[in-house]
Structure formats: C-alpha cells, structure tokens
Amino acid sequence: MYKSMKNTGSIPVILLLCILIISLLSACQSSSQTQTPPAVTPPTPPANPPEAQPPAPVVTTGTAIKWVADGVISADEYQQTRTFNGFTINWSNDNNYIYIGMQAKTAGWVAVGFGAETFMKNADIIEGSVKDGNLTIADMFCAVEIGPHPPDTQSGGTDDILASAGKFDNGYTVIEFKRKLDTGDKFDKPLSKGINKIIWAYANEPLLTLKHSSRGSGEIELR
Q1: Which of 8, 139, 146, 160 has a C-alpha 20 to 30 A away from that of 190?
Q2: CA–CA distances in Å: residue 84 to residues 131, 132, 144
Q3: Residue pLDDT, tens place only, 148-193
Q4: Bridge partners for 139 per DSSP
C-alpha cells in the first residue's frame, strides 16, 4: 500500500519537469531566431519628372555698328557726336574701320581732315557735296599750309573711301563715308583709339575746289 502511494505521487513531479523543459526549449528557440528588419518603402517618383535642362550657352557681347550709307544720320547709328560752330560730326569705329556722318547747314561742300600739322599742312581730307541729288566725294591730301588739296589718286595714292552717300535736305548737306583706320596709303593718316585731332570746313557752293566759308579744328575720340 505504501509503495503504491509513493509511485503515484511521483507522476506530477515528472510532468512538471517535462513542462518546464519544453518551456525552456521554446524560449531558447524563439531567442535564437533572426529578427527580420522592417521593410523599407522606396520613395514614390513624381508623376511628371522634370526634363534635364541643357547648360546655358556662353554669350559674348560687343558693340554693334548699325551704320548704313544712305545720307541720313539715324538715331543710334553712331556712337558719338560733336558740333563745332555749325559743323556736326558723328562717328563710330570698330577695330578696323571708322564710320563718319558729317553735316552743315549749307548747300555747298562739307569736309573733315585728319592729322593736320600747321593749318592744312599734311592733312588727310575727305570732302563731299550733293548737287541735284548726286554725290561728289573725294579722298584728298594737302601738302602745304594753305593751298590746293587734290585727290590722292592724282598724287599717286589710292581712293580709300569704301562706302559713301550724301543728301541735301531741309537746308543741310549730309555726307556719310566709311574707311579703314589704317588704309596703308601714304596720303592717308592712320587713326587710332583715343584722341585724334581733326580740321573741318564747309562752303556755300558744291564745287569742291571753291574756298570754304567756315572752318575750324577740334578732336574726336575713338573707342
């Protein structure tokens, strides 16, 4: 009777030990499993992604010459202007050429000279007039202080006026012309950036060989 009771009491102990062992094994198995990191959701691309923009072009700016040989001095056609006692000279230049528009209130000729020494000596002169709508213009040189200034072609030089036009309108004679800053002709004076001395004159009659009615001197600056 005693043995029977002893054997019956040991069954619950064994059962408890089994339950404890199973619990420990389950805990160890759970701790040994690798935890899976949370899933990362990729960012949603925009519905209309911006297009790739090309690089901005490199822009080089400069001074544009809007010169037209038509006998009309238009607004913004010339970079600079000066007036001397009734004679007005407008001019622009680039690295190779000078563009001039000169005018005076006269029906006669109008002229500008470069590089004069004493009075008109060794002056490079451009003289022009308009009669009956026709332009007469000449590239001249004066070798003496006061005297004739024939065209360069008569002295063995060249006519270096590259483009020209003239008009007589509303009492004013307008002469426009273009030439190189340095023509290479020994009868032309090279022009350079900075201050350049000039002489000017105009007459009451269009014939180029007639004497002036007004004259003077001054300077212009080339840029």
Answers
A1: 146
A2: 24, 27, 24
A3: 999 999 999 999 999 999 999 999 999 999 999 999 999 999 999 9
A4: 126
- What end-to-end distance do the CA atoms of the chain give, in Å? 135
Q: Which two tokens stand for residue 210?
A: 């007639």
What is the pTM (predicted TM-score) of this model? Answer: 0.70
Whether the Cβ atoms of residue 112 and residue 191 lie closer than 8 Å to each other: no
Question: What is the SS3 assignment for 159?
Answer: coil
Which residue from 208, 206, 199 is spatially nearest to 87, judged by alpha carbons?
A: 199
pLDDT above 70 (res 111): yes
Residues 6+ apart with CB under 8 A from 134: none
Ranges of each domain in the chain: 80-222
Measure the CA–CA gap between 69 and 86, rounded to whole angstroms.
22
Residue-wise burial string across 8-35, b where 16 or more C-beta atoms lie within 10 A, e elsewhere: eeeeeeeeeeeeeeeeeeeeeeeeeeee
What is the helix (H) or strand (E) element at residue 194, kind and residue range?
strand 194-202
